[in-house]
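Query form — protein PilD-dependent protein PddA

QUESTION: What is the three-dimensional structure of this chain?
INPUT:
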Amino acid sequence: MKLKNKTRGFTLIELLVVISIIALLMAIMLPALSRVREAAKSVVCKSNLRSINMAAALWSVDNNGWALGMSWSWPDPAWEDGRANNTSLHKYTNSLRNQRNNNVYACPSAKSAGFFGVQSGDDIGMGTLDPDVAEKTITYGINSWIASAQPQGSPGTFISDPADRGAFGEGPGYVYWYDHGSTKIDKIRQPDQTVYFMDHEFYAVSKETFNPLIPPSSVKTAYAPNGVMTRWHSKKPGENYGYANIAWVDGHVSEEPDDLGEKPKLFQNPRWTYYFYDH
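ANSWER: The structure tokens for PilD-dependent protein PddA are given below.
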């Protein structure tokens, strides 16, 4: 008598148990994988900032020790009329924004932070909905209190309030953005605690485009009507900010200090101003 081979399959309950176990493992592993991916992107971001910082240092050597100017990320010449832009870093970074997949000006975490979708516009440093343009957009800003040789008013106008001028400048004699910044590097007090570049949607970090004490949607300018994205690393849903990577004047790169977003005590300036101009 020939016996039939009976192949036993999984029962519905067994399949549900297996599926539940797989789903549980995925739920446990995905956040960890997400953190690993973000950590890797942050490493690339810091490497970009080191490259930019080194390029800025080389530029200063070639320009009598001056700090870099506001138009650091613009090409040379900067405009169609042929005006020269002495502060352009392009020849130092060798990473023009129209070179795909070779852009030290773009942080890989910016896309995951919603950076490129927050607004449209064709100004340098602006977010855009066009993915081809977005890939060329810069995501780092320079400390405008160091870089802005003409922060407000006409050239040669002295502005007494350090929040409204290059805080490290010495007074009259402002020059246009395309020459140099407001001070020489060796004049900057505490260079290891002074921001030079950081993660920022706009190409310059100024009082008009940066305030970590309020939601980014509230930091609005004519160039960024929907607010300015910044400090996006490890940003969690529902939170205003994560943290920023910062390139400091002395050359080192690190994550932002823990007290950058600390609220001020009565009659004191916000703590973040210390790292930009309030030494």
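ADDITIONAL NOTE: Confidence is low (pLDDT under 50) at residues 96-101, 116-131, 151-158, 169-173.
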